[in-house]
Amino acid sequence: MAKTDRKRKNKRVKKLIAICVICAVVLMVSTYAWFIGMKTVTVNSFDIDIATTEGLYLSMDGNTWTTTLDAKEAVAYAKNANVWADSDDTGLIPMSTVGDMDKTSSRLKLFEKGSLTTTKGGYRLLTSRVANNTNLDPDKGQYTEGKGYVAFDLFIKNLSGTEYYEDNEPLNEEAIYLTYNSAVKVASEGGVADSGIENSIRVAFAQIGRVVATTETADDITGITCTDAGDGESHAKVTGICRNAQIWEPNDTAHVQNALNWFQKSCKTRKAEGATVSDPESYNDAACATLSTSQAYPTYAISRALDVSDNVDIYDGTEFNTYTANTTDYATYAAGESESKTYKLVNFPYFTDTMKNVKGADRNTFMTLAPNSITKVRVYIYIEGQDIDNYDFAQLGKKVSINFGFTKERYTEEDYEEYDGPTTGTDAEHTS
After folding, report:
1. Least confident segment among 205-214, 228-237, 327-336
2. How would residue 366 be classed by pLDDT, with cut points 50, 70 and 90?
3. What is the pLDDT at residue 56?
4. How distant, in Å, are the alpha carbons of 201, 278, 395 from that of 190?
């Protein structure tokens, strides 16, 4: 074997080792369909490992900092409001969100099924907001989360430069990338292949607020909320962030045929004048368009509670039943005043695996973090009910493996054709 070939092989081996270390999340839960909720097996264990590259440090308690941690097993701060969807009476229940944050409660706005009734062309959907903004725990000083999803606080220390910017201004912040090996799939042990459950998983990252990286008092770090606070003397100055969550959609171009068959069986095109969702005359007899197993499709996510008068069918949207009266694009939604947002379903622009896999100079920024800062990020893991892959039998997949990681490195060694030096170990080998 030539010397150059040996070097390349050794480099690949080292990279493969790095892949195992960067960031792994293995999630074992029961799941319940958006539609009817079949009996499933509840599994009461998680194995969540997270790691970062040089210059980024992680903590669950605001006191112990490391580049690698097991989120479920790591010591979390005493007054945390983390939820793991691992009790005997719960699992991952399909939700929907467009990433809006509630600034009062510092919680992600999530919506869950209130009712689902069959229509000639699909299912009429009613939803209510998850009550994670109503119950303030007096002992913890935090609002309790609902059931059916995972949520936990992760603190990220970014040691870069010495200047700290108190203003909530993304232009002052540094680009953070999602590592190429970040992935969601059915677990190799305990999971059932070909169900498609992995294709409707979402992971949301909500930046709550931040303090200067030199902050040493754990209470000042863990107590960060969406509101500016502190005086910089007796307490660290908190910069409230609370910007809309960045939501990752894995497997955006992957769909199992069973999910598409379900869609094809259930969906019929809706007439432009078919305003009443339960009226059979609102639908044509023609089935909706045939979808591909290898093409990305939009998710018309829920932006508010839906009641009977909203007349929403789960398949509403240009790409599905062609009915557009209940949908809008995200730019239009975001431009509206919060008091007048009457939109129902929003074509949400996720950060997708397709975006993640872009390499080199065109690599897409996942989120930004201020230099010399500690940022409180609330991580949500849930099933997106409006995803076309979320059908009744998807839950039979039972166990999902989630792997994600962050890096500040825009380039990897693979971006330099003639590079023959040591490996950085900062990212996985790119695969398309």
Report:
1. 228-237
2. very high
3. 84
4. 17, 40, 13
Q: Which strand ranges, in their side-by-side order, compose the sheet holding 327-329?
A: 300-302, 345-347, 327-329
Predicted TM-score of the model (pTM):
0.87
* Two tokens, residue 9: 């092989």
396 CB-contact burial (10 Å; exposed 0-12 / middle 13-18 / buried 19+)? middle
Name, in order, each residue with C-beta under 8 angstroms of 324's C-beta and a sequence gap of 6 or more: 272, 316, 317, 318
Looking from the CA of 296 toward its CB, the CA atoms found within 13 Å total 15
The closest alpha carbon to 389, from 195, 204, 203, 246, belongs to 195
Tell me the per-residue pLDDT of 145-200, one tens digit each, with 9 for 90 and over: 998 889 999 999 998 888 999 999 999 999 998 888 888 877 665 555 666 788 99
pLDDT at position 211, please?
Answer: 97
Given this model, what pLDDT does residue 342 score?
Answer: 74
Least confident of 33-42, 72-81, 194-203, 414-423: 33-42
> Which residue type sits at 56?
L
User: What b/e string do you get for 80-105 counting C-beta neighbours within 10 Å, with b at 16 or more?
Assistant: ebbbbbbeeebbbbbbbbbbbbbeeb
3-state secondary structure 208-223: EEEEECCCCCHHHHHC
Which one, of 199, 217, 268, lies nearest residue 61 by Cα?
217
- Provide the residue type at 353 as one letter: D
Q: How far apart are CA 220 and CA 206, in angstroms?
A: 19
Q: Contact, 200 vs 251, CB < 8 A?
A: no
At residue 53, does pLDDT exceed 70?
no
Q: Are 53 and 426 in contact (CB under 8 A)?
A: yes
Rg (CA), the chain: 22
Closest listed residue to residue 346, CA positions, set 328, 334, 331, 322: 328
Return the residue matching tokens 């609330």: 378
